[in-house]
Amino acid sequence: MRPKFIPANRDQQLLFPPSIQDWLPEQHLARFVVDIVSQLNLQPLAETYEGKGFKAYHPEILLSLLFYGYATGVFSSRKIEQATYDSVAFRFISANTHPDHDTIATFRKRFLGQLKPLFVQILLLAREMGLLKVGKISLDGTKVKANASKHHALSWEHACKIEQQLRTEVEELIRLGEEADSEKIPDGMDIPEELCRRQDRLQAIAEAKAKIEERAAQRYAQEQKEHEEKIAARQVKADKTGKKPRGRGSQTATPGTQEK
């Protein structure tokens, strides 16, 4: 009986549901980030884009991408750009657009002073809503030594300590983002332009595979020749001495590629 597999067709016309809203489950962190950023006052950021004579990505998109990336451990602007193609969550946040890494990095550098308090606002709102973590960022105040209390309500003093902790967390996130963007080594695979087209890529893969198989055939022929020569030499020695050769002799060559 032949096994049954789930059919997979990468040439089908529609890979995602027709609405971006259907791409992620309701409880996904990306939805939370988009919703909470939409409630922030970003007018000061938006106004700086007006009157420039060209269209720009709304700061809501760029802020959401940066915050979600940093919160989930993606700090490089290049990797965030790539994620808008590879990751369903990032594609949801960017509304299926793809800001390039220079745009993302420039936005972070240009508005660094405004981004830090906005990041803190997001974390404070998340904590107020009862979340214990946002991505990899802890919100439970475990780093803050609070006086033991049976009351659910936080004291003003303790709330200030937690806010300071979150500010420290944000500073570290920004530092990691700046550090990642300062790396001169390209992130991930550096794919030559001629390999970006699928047909050329498949042809290049076939050519590479053929070269590997050719080298494997050459290796096999050489090893087989050496094996036969050793067998012949052992037989000549045995004929001269009249003694049966000791040892296992040389191993027969194995066709195909081999891992070293």
Structure overview:
The chain is mostly helical and 260 residues long. The protein has two domains: 161 residues, no CATH class; 67 residues. It is 54% helix and 2% strand. The protein contains nine helices and two strands, in the order H-H-H-H-H-H-H-E-E-H-H. A two-stranded antiparallel ribbon has the order 1-2. Strand 1 and strand 2 form a beta hairpin. Helix 4 crosses helix 6 and helix 7 crosses helix 8. The longest helix is centred in the last third of the chain and has 44 residues.
Shape: elongated
| Spatial separation of the terminal alpha carbons | 38 Å
Strand order within the widest beta sheet: 1-2
Structural class: mainly alpha
Using only C-alpha atoms, the radius of gyration works out to 30 Å
- How many β strands by DSSP? 2
Strand coverage percent? under 5%
Return residue spans where pLDDT drops below 50 for at least 5 consecutive residues.
144-153
List the total number of helices. Answer: 9
- What string gives the helices and strands in order? HHHHHHHEEHH
